[in-house]
């Protein structure tokens, strides 16, 4: 999705004058990309309308960059969608539904109820959620109010024990509301400041399930209700989300299974039905695989702008200080040498899963080949081998793509035992990234330099 939108936006670059026809074509590409990734039709239509309103060519101040305006409009619309507004102008900002930033209050009564269909990932996510806040100094606890699924309590018990989180449940009591009330009461007495209530899901939406949700909510008085949604079910998530949101006061959403090959668009549509922001995403079965959701980063990535903030944070964790500063300098100055590219590849190797890191680097997202991780690593290694055969002067030249003549290219290839086509790819990639750097010249890097001491 991101690549398609980004390339649609890029196509505007090729033209000096942006007229209505060109804008229409670009919008069409963007709309198609959204539809192809399963975003619901009415949402896409509404978004397009909003974008057209924003990008009013006639009223655009002369000299204003139409591409920037369009990019900003698309960005704004997608962000609003993900923050649960569904509409940039209609984002809810009251009650528990403030966009994106809900957190429990330490030392206070926080009762969080998890709802969602069976198999959505509630029980798994409950424990991840408890673990996440335990690390932040909370005293979480887990209550199993699922008496429908056989073995539900055992599953929660096992997870909770592994994560060292206190839990409550019953093998004999069959009324979920009774258990929920008793569990919440117990943990209130034990001064848990984050009581998490796991509920049952059933296979489909049915009145009995919704009645049960209402009962549990009325006896536990949750301060937050989180709707857990399986992101792999696509648009059918929308009806489900709507049904849950109209039964209980959904204040936040967690999308699970985003590690699979889910079409995120359907999930995005569903989220907009709940009018509640995405708080976390689940990216695996393991307890640590829960990520706080950051709308701006996510949309930046989607639009191929690169997740600068996430990148800087990750870099601060892993990259040697000196090298990080050099890169920041390069970002600022617009000079991007082969050596710098080499060093970045070295850093990437130390950073873990390449595709996840590369997708954060502006411009590099496009470099992740279809074959994924393994292919990406291979390609990077081949480029590094080529660079190993270059001279210092070549590595440090500010315009590497221009200084190589055919002879030198052949020599480098021979030295590295690589094909000329690989050398050409390297030069092209280097040039492309250099251009990106040029565009980012003077950009403010969040967290660069001073923020390192965190
Ligand atoms: P519940 O019925 O809503 O309580 O769902 P469960 O927590 O029992 O999860 C159903 C299945 O989904 C389990 O096999 C989980 O391991 C799996 N699961 C949950 N979250 C994720 C996730 O983020 N990624 C992956 N790959 N699997 C998940
Ligand atoms: Mg469960």
TrEMBL record:
<dbReference type="InterPro" id="IPR006325">
    <property type="entry name" value="SRP54_euk"/>
</dbReference>
<protein>
    <recommendedName>
        <fullName>Signal recognition particle 54 kDa protein</fullName>
    </recommendedName>
</protein>
<keyword id="KW-0963">Cytoplasm</keyword>
<dbReference type="GO" id="GO:0005829">
    <property type="term" value="C:cytosol"/>
</dbReference>
<dbReference type="InterPro" id="IPR013822">
    <property type="entry name" value="Signal_recog_particl_SRP54_hlx"/>
</dbReference>
<dbReference type="InterPro" id="IPR022941">
    <property type="entry name" value="SRP54"/>
</dbReference>
<keyword id="KW-0256">Endoplasmic reticulum</keyword>
<dbReference type="InterPro" id="IPR003593">
    <property type="entry name" value="AAA+_ATPase"/>
</dbReference>
<dbReference type="InterPro" id="IPR042101">
    <property type="entry name" value="SRP54_N_sf"/>
</dbReference>
<keyword id="KW-0694">RNA-binding</keyword>
<comment type="similarity">
    <text>Belongs to the GTP-binding SRP family. SRP54 subfamily.</text>
</comment>
<keyword id="KW-0342">GTP-binding</keyword>
<keyword id="KW-0547">Nucleotide-binding</keyword>
<dbReference type="InterPro" id="IPR027417">
    <property type="entry name" value="P-loop_NTPase"/>
</dbReference>
<keyword id="KW-0687">Ribonucleoprotein</keyword>
<dbReference type="GO" id="GO:0005786">
    <property type="term" value="C:signal recognition particle, endoplasmic reticulum targeting"/>
</dbReference>
<feature type="domain" description="SRP54-type proteins GTP-binding">
    <location>
        <begin position="277"/>
        <end position="290"/>
    </location>
</feature>
<keyword id="KW-0378">Hydrolase</keyword>
<dbReference type="InterPro" id="IPR036891">
    <property type="entry name" value="Signal_recog_part_SRP54_M_sf"/>
</dbReference>
<comment type="subunit">
    <text>Component of a signal recognition particle (SRP) complex that consists of a 7SL RNA molecule of 300 nucleotides and six protein subunits: SRP72, SRP68, SRP54, SRP19, SRP14 and SRP9.</text>
</comment>
<dbReference type="GO" id="GO:0003924">
    <property type="term" value="F:GTPase activity"/>
</dbReference>
<dbReference type="Pfam" id="PF00448">
    <property type="entry name" value="SRP54"/>
</dbReference>
<dbReference type="InterPro" id="IPR036225">
    <property type="entry name" value="SRP/SRP_N"/>
</dbReference>
<keyword id="KW-0733">Signal recognition particle</keyword>
<dbReference type="GO" id="GO:0006616">
    <property type="term" value="P:SRP-dependent cotranslational protein targeting to membrane, translocation"/>
</dbReference>
<dbReference type="Pfam" id="PF02881">
    <property type="entry name" value="SRP54_N"/>
</dbReference>
<comment type="function">
    <text>Component of the signal recognition particle (SRP) complex, a ribonucleoprotein complex that mediates the cotranslational targeting of secretory and membrane proteins to the endoplasmic reticulum (ER). As part of the SRP complex, associates with the SRP receptor (SR) component SRPRA to target secretory proteins to the endoplasmic reticulum membrane. Binds to the signal sequence of presecretory proteins when they emerge from the ribosomes. Displays basal GTPase activity, and stimulates reciprocal GTPase activation of the SR subunit SRPRA.</text>
</comment>
<dbReference type="GO" id="GO:0005783">
    <property type="term" value="C:endoplasmic reticulum"/>
</dbReference>
<dbReference type="InterPro" id="IPR000897">
    <property type="entry name" value="SRP54_GTPase_dom"/>
</dbReference>
<dbReference type="Pfam" id="PF02978">
    <property type="entry name" value="SRP_SPB"/>
</dbReference>
<dbReference type="GO" id="GO:0030942">
    <property type="term" value="F:endoplasmic reticulum signal peptide binding"/>
</dbReference>
<dbReference type="GO" id="GO:0005525">
    <property type="term" value="F:GTP binding"/>
</dbReference>
<dbReference type="InterPro" id="IPR004125">
    <property type="entry name" value="Signal_recog_particle_SRP54_M"/>
</dbReference>
<dbReference type="GO" id="GO:0008312">
    <property type="term" value="F:7S RNA binding"/>
</dbReference>
């Amino acid at each position: 999705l991101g690549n398609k939108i980004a390339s649609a936006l890029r196509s505007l670059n090729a033209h000096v004058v942006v007229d209505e026809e060109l804008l229409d074509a670009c919008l069409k590409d963007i709309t198609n990309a959204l539809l192809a990734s399963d975003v619901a039709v009415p949402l896409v239509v509404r978004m397009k309308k909003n974008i057209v309103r924003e990008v009013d060519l006639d009223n655009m101040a002369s000299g204003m960059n139409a591409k920037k305006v369009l990019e900003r409009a698309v960005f704004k619309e997608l962000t609003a969608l993900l923050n649960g507004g569904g509409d940039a102008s209609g984002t809810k900002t009251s009650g528990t539904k403030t966009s994106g930033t809900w957190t429990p209050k330490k030392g206070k009564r926080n009762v969080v109820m998890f709802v969602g269909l069976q198999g959505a990932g509630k029980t798994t996510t409950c424990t991840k959620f408890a673990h996440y806040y335990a690390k932040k100094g909370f005293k979480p606890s887990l209550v199993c109010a699922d008496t429908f699924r056989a073995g539900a309590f055992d599953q929660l018990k096992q997870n909770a024990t592994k994560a060292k989180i206190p839990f409550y449940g019953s093998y004999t009591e069959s009324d979920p509301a009774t258990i929920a009330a008793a569990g919440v009461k117990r943990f209130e007495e034990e001064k848990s400041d984050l009581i998490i209530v796991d509920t049952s899901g059933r296979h489909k939406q049915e009145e009995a399930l919704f009645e049960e949700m209402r009962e549990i909510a009325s006896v536990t008085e949750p301060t937050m209700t989180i709707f857990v949604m399986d992101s792999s079910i696509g648009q059918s998530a929308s009806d489900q989300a709507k049904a849950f949101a109209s039964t209980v006061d959904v204040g936040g959403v967690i999308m699970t299974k985003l590690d699979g090959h889910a079409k995120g668009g359907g999930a995005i549509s569903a989220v907009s039905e709940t009018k509640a922001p995405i708080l976390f995403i689940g990216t695996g079965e393991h307890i640590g695989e829960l990520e706080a959701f950051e709308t701006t980063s996510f949309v930046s990535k989607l639009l191929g702008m690169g997740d600068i903030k996430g990148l800087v944070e990750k870099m601060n964790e892993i990259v040697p200080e000196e090298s990080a500063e050099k890169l920041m300098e390069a970002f600022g100055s617009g000079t991007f040498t082969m050596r710098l590219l080499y060093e970045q590849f070295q850093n990437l190797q130390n950073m873990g899963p390449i595709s996840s890191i590369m997708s954060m680097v502006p411009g590099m997202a496009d470099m992740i080949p279809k074959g994924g991780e393994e292919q990406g690593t291979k390609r990077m290694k081949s480029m590094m081998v080529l660079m190993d055969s270059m001279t210092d002067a070549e590595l440090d030249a500010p315009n590497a793509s221009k200084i190589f003549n055919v002879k030198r290219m052949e020599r480098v290839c021979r030295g590295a035992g690589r094909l000329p086509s690989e050398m050409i790819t390297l030069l092209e990639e280097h040039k492309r990234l250099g251009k990106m750097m040029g565009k980012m010249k003077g950009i403010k890097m969040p967290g660069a330099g001073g923020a390192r001491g965190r």
